[in-house]
Design brief:
Radius of gyration: 15 Å
Number of helices: 6
CATH architecture: 3-Layer(aba) Sandwich
Order of helices and strands: HEEHEEHEHEHEH
CATH topology: Alpha/beta knot
Number of domains: 1
Number of strands: 7
Structural class: alpha/beta
Strand content: 5-15%
Distance between the termini: 24 Å
Mean pLDDT: 91
Shape: globular
CATH class: Alpha Beta
Strand order of the largest sheet: 6-5-7
Helix content: 25-40%
Largest sheet: 3 strands, parallel
Length: about 150
Amino acid sequence: MVQKAVEMGVGALRPVLTQHTQVSRLNLQRMEANVIEACEQCGVLAVPTVAEPVPLRAVLKNWLTTDLDRHLLFCDEGEASQNPLGALAQIREGPLAVLIGPEGGFAEEERALLRSQRFVTPIPLGPRVLRADTAAVAALAVIQAVLGDWR
């Protein structure tokens, strides 16, 4: 997932700890090595940063002080719509962040918490249940097409 995200143009990677996160699978050194490898293979000059994992509640609590102008797109497998284009059409230009769920998805409490934040927009990724690595590529592709540098 890390290599594909770099290829799709992300500037930073921040693992977020959720109820279903498999912490034993997080390896920051491997993530950083994957970032560098992807940059080398694809000619990316600005190496994305890899941040320490942070619990979801802490990310949301600190958002307004650290990411004041950044909008968070939350890939919500429970979104009523199947089409992300309607939700993305509501977003103004500006810096964006994308939150992909862990294996098993977000807990209902986490989904409710995310939906209650004014800087969060839930987006669906279609009718299929996607693995995290596939969801990341799908989300980044549709976001690049609608809001990013593919326009």
